[in-house]
Specification:
rod-shaped; 111 residues
């Protein structure tokens, strides 16, 4: 009789352990799904921020190209004005050129 009781207890313990393992696996899967969803949302947010930064970088690059072009034009104009008296120590004053050719010149300095 004592042996019979031990077997029943052992079967109940094993069934309980199996149930606990399955329950733990279900909990782990839920936790993994929750973390996966959280990481997915973070990834979406990062991709949105990257797109915003990419657009800002593109606009800054365009602005830099426009400023470089304006600088080259001013240097060429200054060199043309000073070509008869070419002095290598003479540094052209870029502020002498009219800023009306670039209406954004004053606004770009106000950042």
């Amino acid at each position: 009789m004592m042996a019979m009781g031990w077997c029943v207890v052992w079967v109940l313990v094993m069934m309980g352990t199996t149930f606990d393992r399955r329950q733990r696996i279900v909990e782990i899967r839920r936790e993994m799904e929750r973390l996966n969803s959280k990481l997915y949302l973070q990834n979406c947010y990062i991709m949105q921020e990257n797109e915003k930064l990419r657009k800002k970088a593109q606009l800054l690059n365009q602005e830099n190209q426009a400023l470089l072009s304006e600088l080259k034009q001013r240097l060429n104009k200054s060199n043309n004005n000073n070509s008869p008296n070419h002095d290598p120590n003479n540094i052209p004053d870029l502020n002498l050129c009219s800023s009306s050719s670039n209406p954004n010149a004053s606004s770009s300095n106000k950042r």
